[in-house]
């Protein structure tokens, strides 16, 4: 019997495919030059995170005696690392090539990169003087020999290293940190040209003079990437310890975890590579030489300088700011007349913030409850909660301290919330709370009334201008009662297992969506119209992938819009022939999750905080909602239809798992779904002063709590990395 072709793609390789799609925008001639710099920077940031999180996790797994293979592709951790390394080398080579093209085009635009190997006498004098006066006093060189130990090297910092020879002591090594205290990009005007230099290259050019008593034989720059896959399990052995203190200690530990990658600029001498490999225990396969900057974050600074110079509008995307609500628009009042959908970044988040402030000052409001995962460093939203608490309201904040790379920010905010009199909860021991849920409870005429907000994105004003997200706000009592039960369950470390309209992972999320797929399969088998549209960030859950395959085999058309990791292959004969997968990577980070089943009057559509990764479906508390309001449901479907027509940002998966850029049909104009959404939501702040309030639906079954089992459970989490956001912290 002929072996059936697999429909599964390895998660790590899929992640790298996504990074490849990001990198492709750094060479896309249709993208303005300044924006292409940013995409190159984003690629580098993504690769840093990939090594810290995913490769770090795989490295940990290789140290375990019982190293279980990947549940999707059955590859061991060692096999996955072996598959990753050549792919990373391939992408790095592309990045180097694209960077050189960007440098050449910047020169044409009036911004020339300083080449320290070809300086005129005047330039040599200027930069040497600058080095001696501005940098030399701040440098902290170290010698490594038999009398001086190898120093600790910080994660993601750049270092200069030289192999030294001294007649009396023989061979030693000198290391000079080029740390974050230095301005990464230096600018000098030279007539009409603006010259820019990367500070680490300047240090590398003159650092030999630091070791004037020795002969510098060989030298280069390098950068270390360390594992960031920390776990709270060992820190929670003593339950009398405050969880914030546990997380603070773990953050200190993260800085000292094992090195997982070495980057060198330019080609590094083998003696230096061997020396660092031996000291840091990094295999040769994870040592990468490159000609692009070791830390591409400097390209953000370069793009920022060009933008601040002015008069370079052609080098950047046209200005597009979130639409503000019209004068007199009051979301707090409006939502009592009809359900509301806000779409970021097309609409401003300000009406939501004003709604929180109104609630905090409303004498009828009893309590405000909110889940907080990633917040801005100067969060107006958290300040609104603090103001409400200081105004005498009960404020309950479920703060997830384990939001990767935002732990310290969340620790700091949790302290401020607690100091203001808010009740701060940290969620579950075994499940991250990734929900985006707000509940405002009022008491009017002796009866409790609920205002509920359910979103796909974080309560973060900064990312609301960069990520496409949805926020559904309603005063429907049935949804409010379910949300109230969810908050009560979370406070008592219990999982929600029953609700009518809401999705609540891990017990009532995947099962509901699988049931919805089964309904479409049944319709297709009866010869009736059936369709499924799934939009999210990532998918690797085997059960969901198997169900998608079943739907395809039954004749259901399945359209998937998956921005990042996608572990299912489209178009596999006899398995996924009716599955069509596309990825949208463009100006904004596609972050919203919409799940649509059927069409017309029988259509059922959901928004949610959770993707189809097993970490979301089985190891996190996620929240979603079925949107029954016909107008909003239609609007959500319109978003999906628009993105399925995109011919600017979209790439379609081919049967071999690769992606091809979607192009407009001959004679047809290009469709940029992201920019078209500004027009789609131009009347999004609907005001219905005369529209009656939504009818209260019949009472539904109360959400039932289920205690979290601490013994054997199929839902118990495993150690895994966390995909984070594309546009910096970010993150998800």
Q: How would you describe what is shown here?
A:
Mg(2+) binds at residues 374, 404. Its EC number is 2.7.4.1. ATP binds at residues 46, 467, 563, 591. Residues 703-732 are annotated as: Disordered. The protein is an alpha/beta fold and 732 residues long. Helix content is 34%, strand content 22%. The protein contains 18 helices and 30 strands. A 9-stranded mixed beta sheet has the order 19-27-25-24-20-21-22-28-29, with helices on both faces. Strands 10, 11, 12, 13, 15, 16, 17 and 23 form an 8-stranded mixed beta sheet that branches. The chain has a 6-stranded mixed beta sheet with strand order 2-4-3-7-8-9. A hairpin with a 2-residue loop joins β5 and β6. α1 (11-24) runs parallel beside α3 (77-108).
SSE blueprint:
Blueprint: H1 11-24, H2 33-62, H3 77-108, E1 111-113, H4 121-135, E2 142-144, E3 158-166, E4 170-178, E5 185-190, E6 193-198, H5 199-206, E7 215-226, H6 243-254, E8 259-265, H7 270-280, E9 287-289, H8 298-309, H9 331-334, E10 340-344, H10 350-361, E11 365-372, H11 380-390, E12 394-399, H12 407-419, E13 423-425, E14 432-433, E15 437-444, E16 447-455, E17 467-474, H13 477-491, E18 494-496, E19 502-504, H14 510-525, E20 531-536, H15 542-554, E21 557-562, E22 579-584, E23 589-590, E24 594-597, E25 604-608, H16 614-618, E26 620-621, E27 623-626, H17 630-644, E28 650-653, E29 659-661, H18 673-680, E30 705-707
Parallel strand pairs: 1-6, 8-9, 11-12, 12-13, 14-26, 17-23, 20-21, 21-22
Antiparallel strand pairs: 2-4, 3-4, 3-7, 5-6, 7-8, 10-17, 11-15, 15-16, 16-17, 18-30, 19-27, 20-24, 22-28, 24-25, 25-27, 28-29
Helix pairs in contact: 1-2, 1-3, 2-3, 2-8, 10-11, 14-15
Cofactor: Mg(2+)
Organism: Candidatus Gemmiger excrementavium
GO molecular function, one term: metal ion binding
């Amino acid at each position: 019997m002929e072996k059936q072709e697999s429909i599964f793609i390895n998660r790590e390789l899929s992640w790298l495919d996504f990074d490849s799609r990001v990198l492709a925008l750094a060479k896309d001639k249709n993208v303005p030059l300044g924006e292409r710099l940013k995409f190159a920077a984003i690629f580098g940031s993504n690769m840093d995170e990939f090594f810290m999180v995913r490769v770090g996790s795989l490295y940990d797994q290789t140290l375990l005696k019982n190293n279980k293979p990947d549940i999707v592709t059955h590859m061991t951790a060692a096999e996955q690392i072996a598959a990753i390394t050549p792919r990373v080398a391939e992408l790095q080579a592309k990045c180097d090539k694209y960077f050189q093209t960007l440098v050449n085009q910047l020169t044409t635009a009036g911004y020339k990169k300083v080449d320290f190997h070809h300086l005129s006498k005047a330039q040599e004098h200027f930069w040497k003087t600058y080095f001696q006066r501005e940098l030399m006093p701040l440098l902290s060189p170290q010698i490594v020999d038999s009398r001086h130990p190898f120093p600790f090297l910080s994660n993601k910092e750049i270092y200069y290293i030289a192999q030294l020879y001294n007649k009396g002591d023989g061979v030693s090594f000198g290391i000079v940190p080029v740390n974050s205290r230095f301005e990464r990009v230096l600018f000098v005007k030279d007539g009409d040209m603006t010259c820019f230099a990367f500070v680490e290259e300047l240090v590398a050019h003159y650092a030999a003079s630091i070791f004037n008593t020795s002969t510098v034989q060989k030298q280069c720059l390098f950068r270390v990437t360390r594992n960031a896959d920390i776990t709270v399990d060992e820190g929670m052995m003593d339950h009398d310890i405050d969880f914030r203190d546990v997380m603070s200690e773990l953050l200190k530990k993260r800085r000292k975890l094992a090195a997982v990658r070495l980057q060198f600029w330019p080609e590094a001498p083998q003696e230096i590579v061997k020396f660092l490999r031996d000291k840091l225990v990094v295999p040769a396969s994870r040592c990468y030489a490159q000609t692009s900057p070791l830390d591409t974050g400097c390209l953000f600074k370069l793009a920022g300088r060009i933008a601040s110079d002015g008069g370079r509008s052609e080098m950047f995307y046209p200005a597009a700011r979130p639409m503000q609500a019209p004068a007199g628009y009051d979301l707090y009042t409006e939502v009592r007349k009809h359900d509301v959908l806000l779409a970021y970044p097309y609409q401003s988040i300000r009406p939501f913030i004003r709604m929180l402030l109104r609630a905090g000052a409303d004498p009828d409001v009893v309590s405000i409850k909110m889940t907080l995962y990633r917040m801005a460093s100067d969060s107006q939203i958290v300040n609104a909660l603090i103001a409400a608490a200081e105004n005498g309201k009960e404020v309950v904040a479920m703060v997830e301290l384990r939001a990767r790379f935002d732990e310290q920010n969340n620790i700091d905010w949790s302290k401020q919330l607690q100091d203001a009199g808010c009740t701060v909860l940290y969620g579950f021991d075994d499940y991250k709370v990734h929900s985006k849920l707000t509940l405002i409870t009022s008491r009017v005429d002796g009866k409790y009334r609920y205002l509920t907000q359910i979103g796909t994105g974080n309560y973060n004003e900064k990312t609301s201008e960069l990520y496409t997200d949805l926020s559904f706000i309603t005063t429907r009592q049935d949804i409010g009662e379910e949300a109230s039960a969810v908050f009560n369950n979370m406070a008592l470390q219990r999982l929600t297992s029953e609700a009518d309209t809401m999705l609540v992972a891990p017990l009532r999320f995947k099962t509901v969506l699988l049931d919805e797929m089964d309904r479409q399969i049944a319709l297709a088998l009866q010869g009736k119209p059936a369709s499924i549209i799934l939009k999210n960030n990532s998918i690797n859950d085997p059960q969901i992938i198997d169900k998608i395959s079943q739907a395809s085999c039954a004749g259901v058309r399945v359209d998937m819009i998956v921005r990042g990791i996608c572990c299912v292959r489209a178009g596999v004969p006899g398995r996924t022939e009716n599955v069509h997968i596309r990825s949208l990577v463009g100006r904004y980070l596609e972050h919203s999750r919409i799940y649509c089943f059927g069409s017309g009057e029988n259509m059922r559509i959901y928004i949610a905080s959770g993707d189809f990764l097993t970490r979301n479906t089985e190891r996190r508390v996620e929240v979603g909602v079925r949107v029954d309001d016909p107008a909003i449901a239609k609007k959500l479907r319109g978003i999906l239809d628009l993105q399925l027509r995109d011919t600017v940002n979209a790439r379609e998966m081919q049967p071999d798992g690769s992606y091809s850029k979607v192009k407009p049909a001959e004679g047809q104009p290009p469709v940029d779904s992201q920019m078209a959404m500004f027009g789609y939501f131009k009347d999004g702040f609907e005001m219905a002063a005369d529209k009656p309030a939504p009818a209260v639906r019949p009472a539904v079954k109360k959400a039932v709590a289920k205690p979290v089992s601490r013994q054997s459970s199929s839902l118990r989490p495993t150690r895994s990395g966390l995909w984070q956001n594309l546009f910096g912290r970010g993150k998800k």
